[in-house]
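User: Predict the structure for this protein chain, please.
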Amino acid sequence: MQSDIIEFARQFKGVTYQWGGASPKGFDCSGYLQYVYNHYSIAIPRTTSQYPKLFGHKVSIKQAKVGDLIVFTGTNPRIKKPGHAGIITGVGEHTLTFLHSSSSKKHFGVTETDYYKSGYPKRFLAVISMPGLN
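Assistant: Here is the predicted structure, written as structure tokens:
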């Protein structure tokens, strides 16, 4: 099922970022993830601020699997609360990629990012193993 969910999620690459957006007309990060996971009957909260409810399913970044949820702080890494998230699309030695809807001017909208070649490691909070996928 992991490859199915990633294939489904990738079809939205390029969809524009829209704050509060939860459809292919425009997504914010949590709206995008909820849309993708709901397609596979996996319920997740609508906003990243509610993601700590899922933290009972946390795994280490080394245990991350394709389809898992990766959670970051907002743009200020000193505030250790969820503010951004993505879906893991690839894992390997020194490799981790994820899809997300970004509000960054550099990567605006649904995009795929190489975790280790980005600024996200300093904002990392958790990987959440998604029940029903793994």
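DSSP finds two helices and eight strands in the chain.
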